[in-house]
Sequence to fold (107 residues):
Amino acid sequence: HPGNILIHNNSVKVSDFGISKLTTEPSIALLKLAGALEYSDPIFLKKMGKYSRNKSSDIYSIGILFWQISSGRCPYRLKNFEDEFDILTFIISGNREDPIIGTPIDY
Fold:
């Protein structure tokens, strides 16, 4: 999430995306607390506790971050979700935010 973007001396660094080092079995509550639920890859969310994050997880997370930078808003905030489980269900069901107007189709 945006808290993982560090700027120092005109240099941008991306710090750890995952919270997997905090616990061996992350929970939805922990992901929410860390602000990582919206940035977690669907396979990880489906198989939580049985799947380790990998490079693909990081690529998914940075894609969500790029979407946020392009849109100027946090992902899934304009949807009418009642709680984190609604967001979780939305993501693991294969749904995503709408593409930003003007984004080339190849992206």
About this structure: The helical segments are 28-33, 42-46, 55-71, 84-92. The chain has a mean pLDDT of 78.
